Amino acid sequence: MTSLLTVSPSPHVRSGMTTQKIMLLVVLALVPAIVAATVVFGPRALFLVVFCAVISMFTEMVCQKLMQKETTYTDGSAMLTGVLLALNLPATLPLWEAAIGCVFAIAVVKQLFGGLGCNFANPAITGRVFLLLSFGGDMTTWVKPFFYRGRSFFEMFAATGNLPDGVTGATPLASGDAGLLDLFLGNVGGSLGETSVLALLIGGVFLLVLGLISWHTPVAYLGGLAVLELFYTLATGGEMTDVLYALLSGGVILGAFFMATDYVTTPMTGAGKLIFGLGCAVLTFVIREFANMPEGCSFSILLMNLLTPYIDKLTMTHPFGAKPAVKKEAK
Amino acid sequence: MNYGKEFTKGILKENPTLVGLLGMCPTLAVTTAAFNGIGMGLSTMFVLICSNIVISLLRKVIPEQVKLPCYIVIIASFVTVIQFLVHGFVPALYTSLGAFLELITVNCIILGRAEMFASKNNVLASALDGAGMGLGFTLALFLMGSVREILGSGTWFGLTIPGMVGHTMSLFVMPAGGFLVLGFVIAVVCALSKKNPPKKIGCASCPNAAACHAKCEEADA
């Protein structure tokens, strides 16, 4: 009874959802993908994920100590960045290169711009692009699924750089010869997070059900890409399964559910999210089909990140009944 | 007049590239290797000293209305001289600098020093100013070129660095790497010269100024 009589300033109703909870739930949503990657690429994949998460958190702690800020490395955002970055890497990437990517993502992309909430680009994606442009060879060496079978534990971990012939292969996006079911279940080469579509969808639906992400971005991104690929297939006379192949291969599923839905670097309103997703779809389509790179997912999300403030401005909502603000005359 | 100060100010405190942010085009374009950076820096330094001396000598002759064309003619003459010299004696540098050697003519540092300093000061001060500014420019380019060459190509002045073979980051020889290195070098120089960032940051140069309405109005008021 006394608590009912207590007068306190607003907000009076709290959701109980904290940054830490959201971040941990997103990491939880990524667990199926991590498990799938571990099954497909062996224990080194799991080790890479943990390694990236630890390095990211450590970098965040060091940066915040150096800048004499409140240390928030336990809020899970750095861990999420590390996990997402690891899912964007091939399983055989040397650890020091992965560490450079994590340090760049956290120190340069996130902390130098003011920490969580102030970064203009998605740290994990920028880290991946940084690594891709720096170590083009190692970043595009894809081992075949289950390459680790019949190898000793030490061999699995040492499998970086000089891999024997027959172990590596092109990603299904570049070769275009994987079966659709293999793509869906993850029996293909590629980055850790671009293998099993099923595992990613489980995580994505989990986030949608919990209401942590809205449907706008994934639907606009994947739908837009499907429509564009459909027109392209019709124009070039390909088979209808090519559309499905385009959606299931590469990193679009990971991108659409986990990267393009980042709170900080994507638009706030539903309309803005639709524009963001469609923009990603168009850029991904153009890069895939007309540029000399096999995958354009990370570049497209990064480019749309830069446009986010403008999309937010375009789609700003007005209070009900309020008159639109009169533009100030130029001085 | 303190002649020593006129010379030293350009090296760190008023460094034309890292503090004044002038001459960005050659700074980003030719610094893929330390040798190119030094070559570009020294060429610019030569032109800067010579043009400063001549403009200072002619500062009472040049009419106010046509000073810019006059400056450009003087600068372009010295650029032609250095271009022939580099072509004749260091053909390798001539090839790698390409059009940027000729573009020294329109380098804002040189025109800036002519307008800001040489047209108002005596010959000795102008020569020292040109030498200091040129040295600052050369050092900045050398620093950036070294970082980019070591990280991006694993070499320094063309010499292979042991341990870097196969571990290079090709991003640093790309244009994006140039911007990245420039940002870090500027940060280091600001820290060294104990320059604090401005308390109030204006919206004039902010790319997102259009999108963040509230803050800009606040800053204007």
UniProtKB/TrEMBL annotation, chain B:
Keyword tags: Cell membrane, Electron transport, Membrane, Translocase, Transmembrane, Transmembrane helix, Transport
UniProt gene name: rnfE
Source taxon at top rank: Bacteria
Cellular component, GO annotation: endomembrane system; plasma membrane
Protein name as catalogued: Ion-translocating oxidoreductase complex subunit E
Native source species: Ruminococcus callidus ATCC 27760
Coiled-coil portions: none
Oligomeric and partner information: The complex is composed of six subunits: RnfA, RnfB, RnfC, RnfD, RnfE and RnfG.
GO biological process, one term: electron transport chain
Family: Belongs to the NqrDE/RnfAE family.
Taxonomic path: Bacteria, Bacillati, Bacillota, Clostridia, Eubacteriales
Membrane-spanning residues: 38-58, 70-86, 92-111, 123-144, 164-192
EC number(s) given by UniProt: 7.-.-.-
Pfam family membership, one: Rnf-Nqr
Subcellular location as annotated: Cell membrane; Endomembrane system
Membrane topology recorded in Swiss-Prot or TrEMBL: Multi-pass membrane protein
Function: Part of a membrane-bound complex that couples electron transfer with translocation of ions across the membrane.
NCBIfam families for the chain: PRK12405.1, rnfE
